[in-house]
């Protein structure tokens, strides 16, 4: 009888050790998943295409691991305490993630280096230049500053004050026309959910004028 009791005790301890080991592995797996998600947010941005593609499988994996961890914790009070500690750590990581993403959402994104202008070297009446912005994340507003200069003047008069620029494109939430200046700034609401923004800039000017458009600064905001 003593040996049988001892055997049952050893079996119970073995089962408990196995359960502890399983819970620990599940807990570590959950931490690794959270760390990977955090790194992805810092690298790609909260609203990037990569982030959206990773959220569903990462979220499903986290839920599956957490449910398994809770199930393992029901076997003993000590395991339950371990699971509670894991849940607290998970909540802390989630709050940290939200703080980081909230700060990232309110920060302007300077994408001047990722902005290209095609067809802006020598524009005449009715000419259209294309502006391409390759951002990492989707945003709500584009702030664009262009340098506008005379390539050819009409009858010796500067053409910039006599000109206007019309901004349009499928990625914009409406078109806009502004009077040209040597440094022309415009704020354009965006409707596209994509990170890449394409828009056209059409010149209206006097006959005989030719103007150049070059980028000065491009900023995206939420």
Automatic annotation (TrEMBL):
Keyword Membrane assigned: yes
Alphabetically ordered keywords of this record: Membrane, Transmembrane, Transmembrane helix
Membrane-crossing residue ranges in chain numbering: 24-46, 53-73, 79-97
Protein name: Uncharacterized protein
Annotated organism of origin: Streptomyces daliensis
